[in-house]
Design a protein that fits this description.
A seven-stranded antiparallel sheet has the order 3-4-5-9-8-7-6, with helices on both faces. The relative contact order is 0.21. The two termini are about 25 Å apart. It is of the alpha+beta class.
């Protein structure tokens, strides 16, 4: 795996988290095994991209899974602002969607989560950018670049 997208790793030596294949990470970000990537900035809260997997328990429509996630978010966060889901294209996914969440944890800092959901068969992949509202415009281009490089391992 490379920190420079121009020097992506081959699929055989790329980093992996479950079925996620991570051939490269944006410059300035740090690889965290079994988690994803993180960007630290002086005087700022770190931004993270967390890669997670889940499985469809019933049905085969991603929207049902995302709606269940929205219900959980509303129960977890105090007065969250939720945008989406919106359609999204992702290579190797049967369906994909985008959801954005804004909430305020401690110290009245607004936190933004940009969540990409992908379904391949019964497998669900979730890539979540978590950052502060003030850092979002700075790190979102890196997140979008990372998402273009990210791959899903096909089912054998």
């Amino acid at each position: 795996m490379s920190s420079y997208p121009q020097q992506t790793a081959s699929q055989s030596n790329a980093a992996r988290i479950g079925r996620w294949i991570i051939p490269a990470i944006p410059f300035g970000w740090t690889w965290i095994p079994d988690f994803g990537i993180q960007k630290m900035g002086e005087g700022t809260v770190p931004s993270n991209v967390y890669l997670k997997e889940d499985e469809m328990l019933g049905g085969d429509k991603l929207i049902l899974y995302i709606q269940a996630q929205i219900t959980l978010m509303k129960r977890t966060f105090l007065d969250p602002t939720i945008a989406g889901p919106a359609p999204l294209q992702f290579e190797g996914a049967d369906e994909s969607g985008l959801l954005m969440l804004k909430h305020q944890p401690m110290n009245n800092i607004s936190v933004i989560q940009v969540q990409h959901y992908m379904r391949s068969g019964k497998w669900i992949g979730i890539a979540t950018l978590t950052t502060t509202e003030t850092e979002l415009l700075k790190v979102r281009p890196d997140f979008e670049q990372f998402m273009k490089l990210l791959r899903i391992q096909p089912i054998a």
